[in-house]
Amino acid sequence: MFRGALKEDSHKRRLYNQRFSPLRMGRPSLVWLPLSCSIVLLANPLGHKVILAIFTSIITANARLYHLPTSPASHVFASPGSSLIGHLRRYWTSYSDVKVVRLSMRLLSIAFTCVAIVLPRVAQVTAVPHGGVLSYNIAGTNYKGFTPYNTPVGQTTIQREWDSYDPITTPASGNLACNANGASLGSAQLSATVAAGSRVTAYYNQWPHTIGPVMVYMAKCPGSCTSANPSSLSWFKIDQAGLISGTLTTGLWGQGQLVANNNSWTSTIPASLPAGEYFIRHELLALHTSNQPQFYPECAQLKLTGGGSSSPSGSYLVQFPGAYKASDPGVTIDIYSQPTVTTYTIPGPPVWRG
Ligand SMILES: [Cu+2]
């Protein structure tokens, strides 16, 4: 009799614990592993979205399973802007039925674990496409660029070698002139012959970034560009587009225009430049990561014909590296903390218009 009462008592206590302490349900690993994973995931917006989507589907499934009205579930998630913790709290109070809560915990545990395993891989995959200039149209003629991620052996193009879609993340990088490694292809290196005053279009891959300026530079080679070291040349800017309209956070940038224009950018070679061998250097400076500039330069070789006798000098000329400092206002910038600012200072020299 006494024993039976004790037994019943502990049974009641267990039920009580199950009802009011969801963390004690199931095996500890089923809770703590996913919980720690979820903390990591909540730290980034993608993780937040994924968890929210999983949670919504679990609630809907539960509601169907236990013949609960689905409206509270959708109601819980209908209010935009409220935190995930808020959603959770409202969920517990809407559905305090032990069975539902226990099943939810189990499903959530599995979901969190799966997401924790899968998400880093997803992030890795989505991190691959940055990009660069893959081809050119110069005065109506198409030129294929260098193919990155491939050996330079057997490649012959007007473009200098560049090895990956990844950004250069410091303006002091020795690769800033013509990307890594910017090498000449030697006897396989070509140059496009073009008249001064012609139009040059650079074609990118599916360019993923819409925040940041587009800049186009040229540099005269002392003799043949094929034997020139791009880091020793004096570069001048022939074209640029920074913040075209709107605010730093939501406005239209040069790169947004590039994307809208079929991932391409068209510039005009100044007509007054003297004939000779030149580099043309397209550079995208992506600013979507706060205070972490990303530089994407690619160079191609040109042989200018015609032209004039005007050359940039003085403050128009810069070197790479050297043209930018990390402390430049347009280089290290947090565009998200300035949602009302409508001006942006493009780094580097002013555009030389010939
Ligand atoms: Cu990128």
TrEMBL record:
It is an enzyme of class 1 (oxidoreductase). Keywords: Carbohydrate metabolism, Cellulose degradation, Disulfide bond, Hydrolase, Polysaccharide degradation, Secreted. The keyword Glycoprotein does not apply. GO terms for biological process: cellulose catabolic process. One of its GO terms (molecular function) is cellulose binding. Pfam families: AA9 (PF03443). GO terms for cellular component: extracellular region. It is found in: Secreted. Its EC number is 1.14.99.56. Residues 130-344 form the Auxiliary Activity family 9 catalytic domain. Coiled coil: none annotated. It catalyses: [(1->4)-beta-D-glucosyl]n+m + reduced acceptor + O2 = 4-dehydro-beta-D-glucosyl-[(1->4)-beta-D-glucosyl]n-1 + [(1->4)-beta-D-glucosyl]m + acceptor + H2O. Lytic polysaccharide monooxygenase (LMPO) that depolymerizes crystalline and amorphous polysaccharides via the oxidation of scissile alpha- or beta-(1-4)-glycosidic bonds, yielding C1 and/or C4 oxidation products. Catalysis by LPMOs requires the reduction of the active-site copper from Cu(II) to Cu(I) by a reducing agent and H(2)O(2) or O(2) as a cosubstrate. Has a modular structure: an endo-beta-1,4-glucanase catalytic module at the N-terminus, a linker rich in serines and threonines, and a C-terminal carbohydrate-binding module (CBM). This is AA9 family lytic polysaccharide monooxygenase.
